[in-house]
Amino acid sequence: AGLNIINSSSFPILYSHSAIVRQLNVARSKLSLFSSKGLAKEMEEAINTLEKESKIATDRSPNQRIKLGFDYVVTAELSFTNEDEKEF
Predict the structure, then answer these.
(1) Cys-Cys crosslink for 6: which of 15, 33, 35, 75, Cβ 3.0 to 4.6 Å?
(2) What DSSP designation does 30 have?
């Protein structure tokens, strides 16, 4: 793509219980869209279980957060050939 990588870093994503609950609430808001009421009920139970488990996990963590995934930052610069430089 014509880029030279200068540096890359990764940073862990830390989730608090409240951040997890916000995401679970998004899932809850979609339950009415399920075509099967039975499946919606089962999914609701799974969401409730995840909320309880996430509370236990975040309470056990020294910083009250759990690590899940990473954000990445990449520093790059365009690489030019002699032909490219003539256009500028």
Answers:
(1) 75
(2) T
Q: Please, are residues 71 and 11 in contact by the beta-carbon 8 Å criterion?
A: yes
The answer to whether 14 and 65 are in contact (CB under 8 A) is: yes
Task: Check whether 81 has a pLDDT greater than 90.
Answer: no
Phi, psi (deg, nearest 5) at residue 11: -130, 130
pLDDT at 85: 59
Tokens 């610069």 found at: 77
Distance CA 24, CA 58 (A): 15
Considering only the C-alpha atoms of the chain, give the largest distance between any 2 of them, rounded to a whole number of Å: 66
